[in-house]
Design goal:
The protein is α+β, with helices and mostly antiparallel strands. It is about 20% helix and about 35% strand.
Length: about 450
């Protein structure tokens, strides 16, 4: 491999506007070669700046390496995370003439598995790395379970370090079969297995000359051609209200607008809408986008909506079409991934954040915890610890308009927060909403948590 790379011609604004966007995440155990794969993708797709490559070459040469160690393109951030300086997901942006990419590079250590929830929550594809020498391990199964839980539509199994097993097809086939069977049982809709050597560059961007038994796409080719289905403009229309705008100026004495980012669907002037959880109805009389009036707005646009009637709307409310309004409930059943070091227990008093609304809640039951080895359910474990996946039943102090996560990844998800210090405890995906039973009383009638 040459130690220098000619800089690629940058894509023009017109070219970028014509390409589609793919959000994808990478996941893998420590030392599976994830950093090298990301570095190889960036390098071989000519997405590395010249000064970055020169710095990597100098660092590699100082270590006595003849070729640049592409893992150094990402190892700096990874080392910081592993040393406890930061454990945030690192986002990287690159583009080819066929597609633009946002890559969520997630940590590999077991204690940071929870960060994959953040990285994969908006991804349309997840690349899960496996070391060909080790095969499918517990961390691999955990990553597959999270991908299934988050309903990531496309999963790529990258069987790395094929050069260390003499590029044997039988090794790849055995790992691919085991992982595919496991992922299918979890409900993953699509698995694409690719044998690679990130270090040598085999099947990452260019096809491998030593694995002629493999006739599928390279990693980059698959990323460029996989169908992207993240268009939410045809989903249930939802606008979480983030801010109420009342300038009360001489120029706009009666202006009252409700600002927020459209979570799904589209809204038009004249639409009949309902404000939840109050259930009050009105009609959209205007939509402002970037200070200009428009007739229609859609998913991800930040807008200000004006209503024909003067009704009480505040931060945390949800504006929805009257003919397509979700039911409100105080009882939420969901599948969750616990992300905090402190356990989540039955009776735990928490804050539940759904969209822009935060309410008090109590964990009423933990019906089951998923056992990753055989996908069995451990009934009524009593608590969930860090990285556990399980089912919970939650009672909220106020009604919430929740969608099923299967219908909407935005309005079907929530997080649980520790009310004492603001720590994020759990990420939840609504699996079932059911009618509220008789009011449930808390243990203490004087602490404000009785609902």
């Amino acid at each position: 491999m040459s130690s220098t790379t000619e800089p690629a011609e940058p894509l023009s604004v017109e070219q970028l506007s014509e390409t589609t966007l793919l959000r994808f995440a990478t996941a893998g155990s420590v030392d599976d070669g994830k950093s090298t794969l990301v570095g190889r993708l960036l390098h071989d797709s000519k997405s590395v700046l010249a000064d970055q490559l020169e710095a990597v070459e100098r660092a590699s040469a100082s270590r006595g390496q003849e070729a640049p160690d592409l893992a150094l393109l990402t190892d700096g951030l990874r080392a910081e995370r592993e040393q406890g300086i930061t454990i945030d997901v690192a986002y990287r942006y690159f583009a080819t003439p066929r597609r633009r990419f946002i890559l969520a590079d997630t940590p590999g250590h077991v204690q940071y598995t929870r960060n994959m929830v953040t990285g994969a929550s908006t991804a349309e594809l997840t690349v899960i790395l496996v070391d060909a020498r080790n095969g499918v391990v517990e961390q691999t199964r955990r990553h597959a379970a999270i991908a299934a839980l988050l309903r990531v539509p496309h999963v790529v199994l990258a069987v790395n370090k094929m050069d260390l097993v003499d590029y044997r097809e039988a090794v790849f086939a055995e790992i691919a079969e085991e992982f595919t069977a496991y992922a299918t049982e979890l409900g993953v809709p699509e698995v694409t297995a690719i044998p690679i050597s990130a270090l040598a560059g085999d099947n990452v961007v260019e096809p491998s000359a030593v694995m002629d038994w493999y006739g599928g796409p390279t990693v980059l080719e698959h990323l460029e051609t996989v169908p992207v289905s993240h268009d939410l403009s045809h989903c249930h229309a939802r606008l979480p209200v983030q801010y109420v705008i009342r300038p009360q100026t001489a120029e706009h004495p009666d202006y009252r607008g409700y600002a927020g980012q459209i979570a799904a669907g589209s809204f038009r002037v004249g639409d009949e809408v309902t404000v939840l959880p109050s259930g009050r109805t009105s009609k959209i009389s205007g939509i402002d986008l970037l200070g200009e009036p428009v007739q229609v707005a859609w998913t991800t646009q930040s807008v200000t909506v004006l209503l024909a009637d003067d009704i009480d709307v505040s931060r945390g409310d949800l504006i929805v079409p009257s003919k397509d309004a979700p039911a409100t409930t105080q009882d939420v059943e969901a599948t969750v991934c616990h992300v905090a070091d402190a356990p989540l227990t039955v009776g735990h008093r928490v804050l539940l954040k759904h969209g822009t609304r935060t309410v008090k809640a109590i964990v009423k039951d933990i019906p089951s915890r998923l056992t990753l080895d055989d996908l069995s359910l451990h009934p009524h474990p009593g608590r969930l610890v860090a990285n556990d996946i399980g089912r919970v039943k939650i009672r909220t102090a106020e009604p919430l308009p929740v969608d099923s996560y299967a219908d909407s990844r935005r309005t079907g998800s929530f997080i649980l927060i520790d009310p004492s210090d603001g720590t994020t405890l759990t990420a939840g995906m609504v699996g079932e909403s059911f009618a509220a039973p008789d009011p449930v009383k808390g243990a203490d009638d004087e602490d404000g948590w009785d609902f």
